[in-house]
């Protein structure tokens, strides 16, 4: 096993192919390094349904216990269930998952006590350095008294916590199709939905880390085709799709049409502001204009951030924000230790829909006000040069340029953001405008610049 871990230690997590890039031997070193860097005397560990996950989680536990930390294993869980355990037990945590990545991948999402994120600037680089050193020199000396390893089931407590935050007992009965994509939603949804006035139509609830039906990545339109068809066939009120580790949730309406994560962000923000008047709402710079508009209309304070959960969580902690949302369907709640939970966002949607008589398409129309391109990726030879070409084309025009995260160009009737991928030779474009024709015009202009070879 190579001592250079730069290929698998990313900005926010560990992720790579098993066993080619990492294995249980390395997982054990990560466990020891995690305890050393966090100075933890106790930790909690969970894992998803991938075939390699239980072995990697057990190895991480051995490494942690070797250095004297007591380990609580919560077994199969969603990522937000691990965050719940970290928050409610007050322990640093590690979740073994590669989210929506293909079956041969696995990874570790780590947090400090209270679900506080561990990223490159908050401990992950130190964990990597220790694991690299120990993979060359050998494992660190064991503690005089090794830690204990115990098992605990947190699913019922997790479900109870969520249902205490959103009251669904008085809603009208709803028929909801849920596509778990053979991921952890198939484990959590039955317990969370138990006792609620919901007629649940399950799809792909069998836990299978080889993803036999489709990738567990609902951000890709092809992966929600089955859900859309089933919602229409069942005459359901809505459909929900979860990603592999069930921390993101996507919504389709009664017609089978996707509801944009920005509209869900605005809807949930309005509900949270009704409970916490004047509160702060975080949104990343790619969410729709409608999000800050709705927040201000509801008496709240919108705060714009860079894309990425570490930036959102940092800003939430700094501002005391009550809620945050991203265009990628990550939703963050102060009531959930500032961590992201797609399940809690789903409960808010169900409560909002079931609390009135209209269809979901009508309910979200108030929050979906503009024409959007969605995220469009372009493979480019030189990200910096391509982005500079776009910037030069708009400098001096009657627009505003900012570089909080990539390049954002804003005009009275439209805006676009162009960002470089951190992991691939891609530029990601998002465009929004007051009407579809303007959006298409701006989209095509920018793409022509990005993809031109001269």
From TrEMBL:
The lineage of its organism: Bacteria, Bacillati, Actinomycetota, Actinomycetes, Kitasatosporales. Its cofactor is Mg(2+). One of its GO terms (molecular function) is phosphomannomutase activity. Belongs to the phosphohexose mutase family. This is Phosphomannomutase. It comes from the Bacteria. Residues 375-448 form the Alpha-D-phosphohexomutase C-terminal domain. InterPro entries: A-D-PHexomutase_a/b/a-I, A-D-PHexomutase_a/b/a-I/II/III, A-D-PHexomutase_a/b/a-II, A-D-PHexomutase_a/b/a-III, A-D-PHexomutase_C, A-D-PHexomutase_C_sf, Alpha-D-phosphohexomutase_SF. GO terms for biological process: carbohydrate metabolic process. It is an enzyme of class 5 (isomerase). It holds the Pfam family PGM_PMM_II. Keywords: Isomerase, Magnesium, Metal-binding, Phosphoprotein. The keyword Nucleotide-binding does not apply. The keyword Phosphoprotein applies. It comes from Streptomyces venezuelae (strain ATCC 10712 / CBS 650.69 / DSM 40230 / JCM 4526 / NBRC 13096 / PD 04745). Residues 7-135, 157-256, 264-370 form the Alpha-D-phosphohexomutase alpha/beta/alpha domain. Its EC number is 5.4.2.8. Gene3D superfamilies: Alpha-D-Glucose-1,6-Bisphosphate, subunit A, domain 3, Alpha-D-phosphohexomutase, C-terminal domain. Coiled coil: none annotated. SUPFAM superfamilies: Phosphoglucomutase, C-terminal domain (SSF55957), Phosphoglucomutase, first 3 domains (SSF53738).
């Amino acid at each position: 096993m190579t001592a250079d871990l730069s290929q698998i230690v990313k900005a926010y997590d560990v992720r790579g192919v098993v066993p080619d890039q990492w294995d249980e031997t390395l997982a054990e070193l990560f466990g020891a390094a995690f305890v050393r860097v966090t100075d933890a005397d106790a930790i909690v560990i969970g894992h998803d349904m991938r075939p390699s996950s239980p072995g990697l989680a057990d190895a991480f536990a051995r490494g942690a216990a070797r250095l004297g930390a007591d380990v609580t294993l919560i077994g199969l869980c969603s990522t937000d269930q691990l965050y719940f355990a970290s928050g409610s037990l007050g322990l640093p945590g590690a979740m073994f998952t590669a989210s929506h990545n293909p079956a041969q991948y696995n990874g570790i999402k780590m947090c400090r006590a209270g679900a506080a994120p561990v990223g490159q600037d908050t401990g992950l680089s130190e964990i990597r350095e220790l694991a690299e050193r120990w993979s060359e020199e050998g494992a660190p000396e064991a503690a005089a008294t090794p830690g204990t390893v115990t098992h605990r089931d947190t699913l019922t407590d997790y479900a109870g916590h969520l249902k205490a935050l959103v009251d669904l007992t008085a809603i009208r009965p709803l028929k909801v199709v849920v596509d778990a994509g053979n991921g952890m939603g198939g484990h959590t949804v039955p317990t969370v939905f138990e006792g609620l006035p919901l007629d649940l139509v399950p799809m792909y609830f069998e836990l299978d880390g080889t993803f036999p039906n489709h990738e567990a990545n609902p951000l890709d339109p092809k992966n929600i085709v089955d859900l859309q068809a089933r919602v229409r066939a069942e005459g359901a009120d809505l459909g929900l799709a979860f990603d592999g580790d069930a921390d993101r949730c996507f919504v389709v309406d009664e017609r089978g049409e996707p509801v944009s994560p920005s509209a869900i962000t605005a809807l949930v923000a309005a509900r949270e502001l009704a409970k916490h008047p004047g509160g702060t709402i975080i949104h990343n710079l790619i969410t729709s204009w409608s999000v800050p508009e709705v927040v201000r209309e509801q008496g709240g304070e919108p705060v714009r951030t860079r894309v990425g959960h570490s930036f959102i969580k940092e800003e939430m902690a700094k501002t005391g924000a009550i809620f945050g949302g991203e265009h990628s369907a990550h939703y963050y709640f102060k009531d959930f230790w500032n961590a992201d939970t797609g399940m809690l966002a789903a409960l808010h949607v169900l409560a909002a829909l079931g609390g009135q008589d209209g269809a979901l398409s009508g309910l979200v129309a108030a929050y979906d006000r503009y024409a959007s391109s969605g995220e469009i990726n372009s493979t480019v030879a030189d990200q910096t040069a391509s982005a500079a070409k776009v910037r030069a084309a708009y400098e001096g025009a009657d627009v505003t340029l900012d570089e909080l995260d990539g390049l954002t160009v804003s005009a009275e009737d439209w805006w676009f953001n162009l960002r470089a991928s951190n992991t691939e030779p891609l530029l990601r474009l998002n465009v929004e405008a007051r009407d579809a024709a303007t959006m298409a015009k701006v989209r095509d202009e920018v793409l022509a610049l990005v993809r031109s070879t001269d």
